Amino acid sequence: MESTSYDTYYEYGTAAERWDRAQLFFDAKEYMTAARILDGLVAEVPEQVAPRLLLARTYYHSARLAKAEAELRAVLERDPVEPYARLMLGRTLERQGRRAEAATQLRMASALAGEFTELTAPAFDGTHDAT
Asked: Tens digits of per-residue pLDDT, 6-63?
């Protein structure tokens, strides 16, 4: 298949230039274009979390929820304690109507972020001996 200038635009420049370009398109809510650029970056550097997270966000915002879920699970495979990926996965699962799975991810995201308000551990009020 012959490449057109339209096709090569997404591959043009260094990884840093493409990252900047993808962020600009994301900020402009041009999610499909941002995803196209990020697809190439993720293929080039699959071990990096940031491009995958932004790609997942582009998929989420463009309602491609299965793709968002796949990218978020790939991030969590590499970094299981990434709180933002857990939060996004929970929100993605909610949008898919998978509430029980979403609740688990959202609880883990809260715990990883240091928000323990949803946990049911008894509070220490100082009236009992801790020994």
From this structure: 456 777 889 999 999 999 999 999 999 999 999 999 999 999 999 999 999 999 999 9
Sole residue written with tokens 């240091």: 114
What is the residue whose two structure tokens read 């979403």?
A: 102
The DSSP code for 10 is T
Whether 47 and 78 have beta carbons less than 8 Å apart is answered as: yes
User: Which residues have a Cβ under 8 Å from the Cβ of 82 and sit 6 or more positions away?
Assistant: 49, 53, 75, 76, 112
Residue 1 in tokens? 């298949």
Asked whether the beta carbons of 59 and 35 are under 8 A apart, the reply is: yes
114: left (phi over 0), alpha (psi -120 to 50) or beta: left
CB-side neighbour CA atoms (13 Å) of 74: 20
Q: Give me the sign of the Cα torsion angle 104, 110, 114, 116.
A: negative
Residues whose CB is less than 8 angstroms from the CB of residue 74 and which lie 6 or more positions away in sequence, other chains included:
46, 52
Could you give the C-alpha distances from 90 to 16, 83, 93, 102, 120, in angstroms and in order? 29, 11, 5, 4, 20
pTM, two decimal places: 0.78
